[in-house]
Each structure stands twice: as C-alpha cells, then as structure tokens.
Amino acid sequence: MNIQNRYMMDLINKGTRLDNRGLDEYRKITIKSGVIAQAEGSSMVSIGDTKVLVGIKMDVGEPFPDTPNEGILIVNAELYPMASSSFELGPPDENSIELARIVDRGIREGKAIDMEKLCIEEGEKVWIIFVDIQPINHDGNLIDASAMAAISALLNTKMPKYEDGSVIYEEKKKKLPVKDIIAMTTFINIGDKVLVDPTIEEENIMDSRVSIATSQNGNICAIQKGGMHGIKPGTIEKIFDKAVERGEEIRKIIKSNV
Amino acid sequence: MKRVDGRKPTEIRPVEMKVGVVKNADGSALVRFGNTEAIAAVYGPKELHPKHLQDNEKAILKCTYMMAPFSTTERNKPGPSRRSIEISKVIKEAIEPALFLEEYPRASIDVYILVTQANAGTRTAGINAASLALADAGIPMRDLVSAIAAGKIEGEYVIDLNGDEEKVTLADIPLAYMPREGKITLLQMDGNLPKEDVKNIIKLAIDTCKKLYEMQKKVLKEKWLKEGVE
Known about the structure:
The structure holds 2 protein chains of 2 kinds.
Chain A (H helix, E strand, L loop, with lengths): L2 H11 L15 E5 L7 E7 L2 E12 L10 E6 L16 H16 L9 E3 L3 E13 L4 H14 L2 E6 L2 E10 L7 E8 L2 E4 L3 H5 L3 E7 L5 E7 L6 H23 L3
Parallel strand pairs in A: 4-6
Antiparallel strand pairs in A: 1-2, 2-3, 3-6, 5-6, 7-8, 9-10, 9-11, 11-12
Helix pairs in contact in A: 2-3
Chain B lengths: L14 E5 L7 E7 L2 E12 L12 E8 L14 H14 L11 E11 L4 H15 L9 E8 L2 E4 L3 H6 L2 E8 L4 E5 L2 E2 L3 H35 L1
C-alpha cells in the first residue's frame, strides 16, 4: 500500500478523511438545470469536484410488444476521457454500462415517470426518453451525481409537440409527467468503516460499494452492490436507514432547484 | 441586412470563455458562441503508452472531437462518426502548428473536445477552447489559435453563422488563425462562390480571429492574476 493510501486508512480509522470531512459527511451539492438549449431537459450537478451533465432528448417510436401502452426509457452514460485519465476512448465498457443501468433502475423501479401518459397510439407510437449521462469531471461518487442530474433534468423536461407523424422540436410546452423524485445514495466500505459520498481516492481503496435508490414515500426502489469484498448484513441494515434519511435531504435539494 | 437573430453581418454571437472548468485535466476551457458550446480538456505532456507508438523526436498530439448526444435538436448517436473523425483530424492540424512538440520527445499530449451545444460553428468553438486549454495547462506555445466560420447570405458577407444561417449560406468557411504568427492553420469550405468572394470572407474571418485572440488573452491573464493573488 502506498504512503497516501496508508495515510488515508489511518485517518479513516480515526473517523476523518483527506478532505477533513467526517465519515458520514457529504460534499457540497450544486444543481443548475436548463443549461442545454438543444435538449428537452438538462441539468449540471456538482458534488464537490465531481461534475455531471445530463441531457434529455425525446423522440417517437414503436413501443415494446410487452408494454404496448407505455413510453420507453433509455439511459446511456459516456465515460469520455475528458473527465478522468482513468477513462478510455471506445465503445461503452462495463463501468459506463453499470452506471447507466443503476440510474435506469432507480428511475424505472421508482416509477419516476408516468410511462402510460407517454403513449400516443397503443401498440403503434409512444414517446422515447433518452437520458444521456456525460461526466465532465470525475472525483468520485459518479452514481449519485448522475442520478441527481438525471432526475433534475427529467423535472426540467418540456415535451416537444407531435403532429401529423412528426416531432416538432421547436414547440415545447407540456411538462414531462414526473411522478416521483428518486434519490440515490452511495456508501463505500473500507475495512469496518462506512463512508458516504466517496472521492476518487477513497473509491480506489474501497472494499465494496452499495448504492441505494429511494422514492418519495421512503421505499427503497433499487440497490446495487459493487466492489471485490463482501459486506456484513448488519452493515447493510444501517446503510438502508441512512439511505432513507439521506434521500429526504436529497429530495429537498433537488426540489429547491427546480 | 438584418440577420435572423438580429445581428449585424460582422457581429459575432455573445461569447463566453472560461478556463479551468475540468479540474482533473492539466488544462481546460469552455467556449460558447450563442447556443454553440464546447469544452476542451488537455492531459499531458505525459509518457506515451504503448511504447512502440512513441516518437523519439517529438511528442504526439492526439485530438478527439465528440458531440454530446443531447447537443443537437435530434439526438446525436453516441460514439465516433465519420464526421467526428475528420473534424478531430483537422482540429489536430489546426493546433499542432502552435506547439513545440519537439520539446517533449516520447510524450503524448491528449486534447479532448466535447460539444455540449451544437448550433453551427462547433469545430471552431472547439479549436478556441482547445487553444485556451493548452495555454491553461502551461504548455509552451508559439501562439494562441483563434477560429471562426464565415459565409455569404443575401449578397452580404456574414461572420459566425448560426444553425439557421448555415442552411442558407452560399458558403460555409471555417478558419483558424495564429494572429502573432500571421498563419492560417485550418481552412475548409462547403459551398460555391467566385474566388473574390472567398478571399473577402477569409479576410473577414481573420479580422474576427484577431478580436477573439484578444478575448482569449484576456481570460488567460485574468486566470493567472487571480491565481497569483490566491
């Protein structure tokens, strides 16, 4: 273990971190919505030095055969090397696919969007929502920043007009039917310690990671465990309590920025 | 002649320039012309891997131009396209003349450009941002590179075409220029015009590049002054 990692471990065992935060202390969050003129909705979220831009584009297409009266949600993440020297050019790798799928699951399972209202003609035409996640600077906790930017961008989305078989992007009036504000909270485990809102240095030495999405009524709607080590059930239970509590705070932050 | 957005023929769109927008990068910048916005980040000079790609005489400059999927009215499919590969190449050739690559044998300098909003002039916005990002990274340069596109609409020469104008212009001529060196480093043209018109459009673009150059210098000076105080 190199000297910085050893120092970080010493600090964590004393209950503090490289940036002087406590183990359950979060970094400052800023949300700026409506930043992309061409997108139907957009949001730039910063958590400390992590910056993620999400843009929403909409189009009309055929529904999936098993959900003929529902719209379609497509979440995609591009880990462009601009944001971190650890990203590489090329087709999406496992990290970008996992990131997109965690955010997707939170939105989908939390029923954040009223999908039935996105049906234009049953079995024929429905709205497709593209949520594109574009990290600008990666300093840890991309999952929470991406989820927060995604839901903020959805809340900011105005649907284009659909007339005579074509989408009129110049006319956007109706708000996207967003029913629930999903909040994502990620925890990492290092030894027997649990840290919230990890930086990149902390993620590099983590044993495991747990991300939890909660909905407005306090339900958990998605979970993803990552990392090479196991977690004790007792630790997981404590994390659940904290995630529900933190979810409330995140929702307040998101609402105050709509 | 009045333009669709109310500008005079020789007037550029509202310009915003910022440096230091990507903290992880060695240098970075954001440049916005109206609803066209590009971010550039520079990583390097650093040792080039794999080693067999290294050049013992000079550093290798790598440029990547990419459009965010939400940067266009109809969603732009993510990943490289034939268009983005060509633009990456001409941007590299527009910037390389400003660098002393021979000072960094066996190294690479990586420039990543991301277009976050596309309303015409994305490659020129990208070049302005990349040039600022390289200077922000403290990489020695012969000169800054400034870039703008110009054309001709309804008998008048117009600078900094927007998306609507790009569809009706008789020619679209993006140009990059090193003002101190007095050299053009990027020149492309789509359209059909007599050579006198093309010459005049190039003159107009160069004059505008000189103005952009002053804006670029200003934002860099402000950054250095601020850091000096801190």
